[in-house]
Design brief:
about 200 residues, mainly alpha, Rna Polymerase Sigma Factor, Chain: A, Arc Repressor Mutant, subunit A, about 60% helix, globular
Length: about 200
Amino acid sequence: MRSEASDEALMSDAQSGCEAAFHELALRLRPRLVRFVGRLGADAATAQDLAQDTLLRLWLRRGAYQRRRLVWPYVLAIARHAWADHYARHRETPCRPTLVAGRSALRPHPDRVAGPEAALLEGYRRFRIERAVRALPEPERQVFVLAHYEQLAYREVAQVMGIAEGTVKSRMFRAVRALRAALPDLDPDSRKPEEEPTP
């Protein structure tokens, strides 16, 4: 298949019934989906299952995809619904935090330690951030993961979640405020007062 083809080109081919194009697209998307759902709170096995569920939903709903739309935000919307369905069914099941590789959620601490212990400290720092993110209320957690880890613009987050952009900004503000309160030693600006944006 065309490994250089864009996600959008592969999705367009999949809409025409090309299973090979969809298979290549699925191979690209699966690791990102596993990371995304894991950051929302799924354990490793559940993240794999929900990634597979999302890809199945994508295949079944491929006819609804609009060809001028970016594929990844479209897939994130499907994954978010798959997670919401799972979360509603297993609301009482606690999730153990797991270390997820990726960009740090807050800015690096100015007193970063160099040397052989640096990797261990960075891993522990990411673990603490992931645990704090998972402790956020569900609406704030989804906005934070989409905006920070997936690096979607607020407008795109609003589209994925089906809410107003002002609501996205308010939820992101509350998420960041909660993370700074939970991890004051990781953010030197945590003590500075902030004003919540007006929705």
